[in-house]
Design brief:
alpha/beta, 317 residues, 8 strands, globular, eight-stranded mixed sheet, 14 helices, 15% strand
Length: 317
């Protein structure tokens, strides 16, 4: 397990507990009470830290290297029923954007999501989860296929943003994202969106229009990352913590502003501490959201979706 800087007190106590248990195994000394005291203190420390996380600390948790990525969720949710589909039928297959058909709880879904890598080689292969225009066009192709066969769409968001390279701009990155937003807005099938990691900028919005938008507890969703915001406003990355607070990018902030519909709770410490529980909870929320949408007519579905997004950004002084 890798530890973030604010998790170091937890690491120290876990190391103490390991040493205590080793002493008990290697000697005749009864260390039961000592171990119980350390366990109690460890539990209290975890609660104290994780119940009072700052916005920047939640950003760090969303990027934790042990956190489940999109393909981890797909394998856990669909098992061996997932059939990956490839290519945008125009340029090439984008490895940062994955998609295909799978069953969750017996219900078929067209699943689309951004996939990051888990080591240097796979991160380069997946372009760090930053999709090119062909990735968004592949996503749209799959969603239109789902619409044709009346299959609900599930999108899983985890990206630091759309790829900002010159070649991406030459191939129409902005148009591809805008086209997806337009087409998803009027897609004639239910769309459930789950932010499972980072939800940054237009890269997230390109597959982020949904009838139900859910955020896992330790994720973030914003027009810009805290580091980029800091570099623009203060010409330095040193103010990223201040920027994270100002951006109101946490799941709690987003729910309060009615930009997402629900928050999916995570195990204490984050989804990576107890993956099985996290996967089970995500599945429950996905199926619950689909149950709320499945009996709506196509007209009702599209009207509600458009009405929902039209109301965003309204405020009274």
């Amino acid at each position: 397990m890798e530890y973030l800087d604010f998790e170091l007190p937890i690491k120290e106590l876990e190391d103490q507990l390991d040493k205590c248990q080793i002493i008990g195994l290697e000697s005749n000394v009864d260390v039961t009470n000592t171990c119980k005291q350390i366990e109690k203190k460890l539990e209290e420390t975890k609660k104290k830290i994780y119940k009072n996380l700052t916005a920047w600390q939640r950003v760090q948790l969303s990027r934790h290297p042990n956190r489940p990525y999109t393909m981890d969720h797909i394998r856990a949710l669909c098992g061996d029923t997932f059939l990956e589909l490839f290519g945008d039928r125009g340029f090439k297959d984008d490895k940062a954007m994955v998609g295909g058909l799978g069953k969750i709880g017996g219900q078929s879904f067209m699943i689309v999501g951004q996939q990051k890598g888990f080591n240097t080689k796979t991160r380069q292969f997946r372009n760090f989860g930053m999709a090119n225009p062909e990735g968004y066009r592949k996503a749209l192709r799959l969603m239109k296929m789902a619409e044709k066969f009346n299959i609900p769409v599930l999108t899983l968001i985890d990206t630091p943003g759309a790829y900002p390279g010159l070649e991406a701009e030459e191939r129409g990155q902005g148009e591809a994202i805008a086209r997806n937003i337009l087409e998803m807005m009027r897609l004639k099938t239910p769309i459930v969106t789950v932010i499972v990691g980072e939800g940054a900028s237009g890269g997230a919005l390109g597959i982020g229009v949904g009838d139900r938008v859910l955020m896992m507890e330790n994720t973030w969703y914003s027009v810009i990352s805290p580091e980029s915001c800091s570099s623009i406003l203060w010409k330095s990355w040193e103010y990223k913590e201040k920027a994270a607070d100002a951006l109101k990018l946490t799941s709690t902030d987003m729910k309060k502003q009615k930009l997402v519909d629900d928050i999916i709770p995570e195990p204490l410490g984050g989804a990576h501490y107890d993956r099985e529980t996290a996967f089970k909870t995500v599945q429950e929320y996905i199926l619950k959201s689909f149950d709320e949408l499945k009996d709506l007519s196509t007209l009702q579905l599209v009207e509600q979706r458009m009405d929902k997004y039209s109301k965003m950004g309204e405020f009274k002084e």
